[in-house]
Specification:
CATH topology: Rossmann fold
Distance between the termini: 48 Å
Radius of gyration: 18 Å
Number of domains: 1
Number of helices: 10
CATH architecture: 3-Layer(aba) Sandwich
CATH superfamily: P-loop containing nucleotide triphosphate hydrolases
Number of strands: 5
CATH class: Alpha Beta
Strand order of the largest sheet: 2-3-1-4-5
Strand content: 5-15%
């Protein structure tokens, strides 16, 4: 994904996508996902890692809840990587990540991920460019390790919203009582660094693309969820799974 410019990519669904028709298709996909996840868990030969990245208010939590929230919790795990603890900082940056890689039979979601260590850390100058480039290579090696040695497939989604949509959603967190619990005054400060974040994401897409990213238009939640659910369904179907027979 070389030289990608996020400003040139629409944050909205293609014009030929009808909202209600797409939402109806999504419901059918979610029913199919339920069956596929059950089969994945029963066969226990494959695993799936779903990486979800995006700016504040891009809809990461909603994507997790609405696409994967109704699946059997025995077979789906979610991990949100926040600021590292003192213990985590005393190890290499992937130390806290690796233990949450999915076991065979599992779907693991990273709501924010190891990519934060080459995104927010660079925007705030906690990590210099030389260190970031080394980390990018380590990330590529880490993902290769999972795919080659644990039969793990990895899907990576960047939830692509416009700065205008972000501002609207952040304002809703202030005004809407049902969303005020999400409000973090630091989000508004981070939003002012939009251009810096876009530059770091674009560099990430160029250098950490051995496993490709899906740039997911996310101004409309119904389309975002359809894209993510469709990709997960297609990946699971591609495993050509079968229920195991009676144990001998």
């Amino acid at each position: 994904m070389p030289n990608i410019k996020l400003k040139d990519i629409s944050t909205r669904a293609p014009k030929d996508f009808d909202k209600q028709e797409t939402k109806d298709k999504l419901q059918k996909i979610l029913l199919e996902l339920d069956d596929l996840q059950n089969l994945l868990y029963a066969e226990s030969k494959h695993s799936l890692l779903v990486v979800i990245q995006g700016m504040d208010a891009s809809g990461k939590d909603g994507a997790v809840r609405n696409v994967l929230g109704k699946l059997n919790p025995q077979g789906v795990l979610v991990k949100s990587f926040k600021a590292p603890t003192a213990e985590e900082l005393s190890h290499d940056f992937l130390w806290r990540i690796h233990s949450h890689a999915p076991a065979k039979g599992m779907i693991q979601i990273f709501n924010r991920s190891h990519y934060e260590d080459i995104l927010i850390t660079r925007v705030h100058k906690w990590c210099d460019d030389k260190t970031a480039k080394k980390r990018m290579q380590s990330i590529n090696d880490f993902e290769k390790l999972l795919t080659e040695h644990n039969n793990t497939s990895i899907l990576k989604f960047y939830l692509h919203i416009s700065p205008e949509e972000q501002q609207q959603r952040l304002n809703e967190r202030i005004k809407d009582p049902t969303k005020q619990w999400k409000y973090n005054e630091n989000d508004l400060a981070e939003a002012k660094l939009w251009d810096d974040y876009m530059n770091m994401y674009e560099d990430c897409f160029e250098n950490c693309n051995d496993i490709p990213w899906t740039i997911t238009p996310s101004d409309q939640n119904w389309y975002k969820e359809y894209v993510i659910a469709s990709a997960i369904k297609d990946t699971l179907k591609g495993f050509n799974m079968q229920f195991p027979g009676l144990k001998k």
